[in-house]
## 1
Amino acid sequence: MHAACLLAFWVGVSWPAIAVCFVLYWVRIFSITAGLHRLLAHASFKTSRWFQFALAWGATMSLQKGPLWWASLHRHHHANSDEEDDIHSPVQDGFWHSHVGWILSRRWEATMWKLIPDLAKFGELRWLNRFHVAPGLVMGAACWGIGALLERAYPALGATGGQVFVWGFFVSTVLVYHATFTINSLAHVYGTRRYETKDTSKNNWLMAIFTMGEGWHNNHHFAPSSERLGFFWWEVDLAHYVLVALSWVGVVWDLKKPPRRAYEVGERAEAA
Ligand SMILES: [Zn+2]
Ligand SMILES: [Zn+2]
């Protein structure tokens, strides 16, 4: 995937290619944090079965294996964070393992069905989990199609099928990879700790922006069932704002708030 990004030098670039890369980045980052993480792994809000599937599909377009695999391994991470059994701990196994090694490792290839009895009942999610390459391939084909259509209809834009494919499929996906993986690696290394959790999780505002809120990782390890990851108004949590807006129109509901003790401990830490 990384090497294929170099094809960009061959196919060139255009505004439509950049736009597709940009849109697919944010759509997938949102789907991962809202769908895989806050909804499937932590059940921190409720939604309809179709929107659950839409989020799972969007997240699976990021080519990070299946949604049930993802959610089950993530629950395992919370139960064992930074301990010997943690799937991706920079403390235990070093930076590279926590960043990409774990997802490429055969050891963590299987979905941990025992950890997700509540999710395994959804046939459509099991299907997506099995054919997890499908959404990515559909997305890639759509990128090519959009580029080819633009080339024919608006040649002045300079877009081609191959070009939009390279930017939308390869470049955008690699950016999504590193934004997501950074939370497993760097967010357990760099940043501040407001809460004394048993792991090394940190809060990092820069990562929070690129991941739509996931950078508030110490907050998250302190209160994993909260839908909101940025507990205070200055902790920018873009996915939370989108989910609140979606709750106004009834697409999602029952968003779990941070526990009161998060603010008690938080205010004491801020004052100190
Ligand atoms: Zn973590
Ligand atoms: Zn989590």
## 2
Amino acid sequence: MIVLKDLTKEFGKESNKVVALDNVSCELPQGKFISIVGKSGCGKSTLLNLIGGLEKPTSGSVIIDGVDLYAKKESELAYYRNKTIGYVFQDFYLEPELSVIDNVSVPLIIAGKKAQEISRLAQDRISALGLESKTNEPTKNLSGGQKQRVAIARALVADASIILADEPTGNLDSDNSSEVVAILRRLADEGKTVIMVTHNLEEARQADITVEMKDGKIVEIKDRQ
Ligand SMILES: Nc1ncnc2c1ncn2[C@@H]1O[C@H](COP(=O)(O)OP(=O)(O)OP(=O)(O)O)[C@@H](O)[C@H]1O
Ligand SMILES: [Mg+2]
């Protein structure tokens, strides 16, 4: 279970203050495909970043399977993030000059795995996402859909149980978008927790649960199951 308790995130001070997240509380089950929707600026990315342990809340807590993320020391939080959470972003965030396998290997290197294991695990993930023929290609030579699949492989390689995706189809055409959403759907069916921010309501509907946000608050949680 992912529990958000009185979660608030403010940016700026005094007259410049923006309340990006306004006292949000909810419980999200693990092992489901969850979509987050809402207008630009309503706080979707902020919420995702806080669930991902990437940004400290102004107040409140994020508790994942009983672990209070922001009660941890920064070094422990970094370790927890690398082990538990995989991130997939709109702009892929790959190293363009590095090969597919080197990009996918990054979380394993951080985790301190041995070279042989790194190469085996990375290659397995690359193959599972249909990118075998691109293994040694620099990622700058890949199509958008292929890049996003590399990013998904990287998010999964250290066996994260939670995949956070912020508009993962934002830079893709409709065929590649459908494929990426289908991959995320399948991951949830295999037991991963997938939380995806999207502007596309057709994509949002493929999730088990849709969280709708407005002005820094959750206004509706729709459970399709
Ligand atoms: N680092 C920051 N500094 C200042 N304000 C910020 C920062 N990050 C976000 N904000 C503000 O917080 C609010 C919520 O931003 P957020 O990025 O979470 O929105 P969003 O729902 O993801 O929007 P979009 O759909 O456009 O990506 C916005 O008003 C935004 O301007
Ligand atoms: Mg955003």
